[in-house]
Fold this sequence. Notes:
Strand order of the largest sheet: 1-2
Strand content: under 5%
Largest sheet: 2 strands, parallel
Number of domains: 1
Number of strands: 2
Order of helices and strands: HHHEHHHHEHHHH
Helix content: 55-70%
Amino acid sequence: MPDVSQPVWFAIVALVVFAVVIGRYLLIAGLFYGVFYLWYPEKWKERKINERQYKTGQFKKEVAWTTTTAIIFAISGAAMLLLWQKGYTKVYLNASDYPWWWMPVSLLIALLAHETYYYWLHRWMHHPKVFKVVHKVHHDSNITSPWTAFSFHPIEGVFQAIFLPLLLMVLPMHLYVLLIHLTIMTFSSVVNHLDIEVYPKRFHKHFIGRWLIGATHHSLHHKQFKYNYGLYFTFWDKWKKTESPMYEKLFEEKTERNSKFKVENS
């Protein structure tokens, strides 16, 4: 493997990571947009959270901001490889280095740690002075779409990008588990910003479903601002009482046929 500490190789690795990140985003967001908005819109019409049309040019802006985010993630990815080469991370390639059960356990730990980091970062980004500089770009998408998933201001992009390199300096994780984590992150973000509820009726009451964030949950965050700060899971919102009081009713209405419930700003 080439020495990533060499500027040319660092740039090449960053370029490859950028292609993977932006390609994965375009593929997954594009697939969800195609299925739910282009090919089968009537099938999902009753589960659309917001009835208003998207702003003119919104999707182009989201893709443009995401491209900037992908550049930041690419630099972070190249830096993570450099740290691995220098022996500063605990990413391992040989599955026998740790017991087999450590793979799912390490994934769960990483997801819970990521949730905790993001929840408190997210609340901080909603401080009025911070919000205007760091988080407003993401909330310019008042009605979200699959393309909103990684539409961040560069400062927010940096905060998003530094988590995994820091985590991997202390948490042993197999390379494949890391890739699974990144894939979950992408799918979760696209689903949460879809603005169409894909989960089944009463899923919010299910012993697993009640802890998972979906489109209804996150759509309310973009409408109300002061609720639903989670990334993957609802446990911090439930514990800190920041889950929207409208969530259960809206979820129930959107998973019933002929729903008439509308979200109002609060």
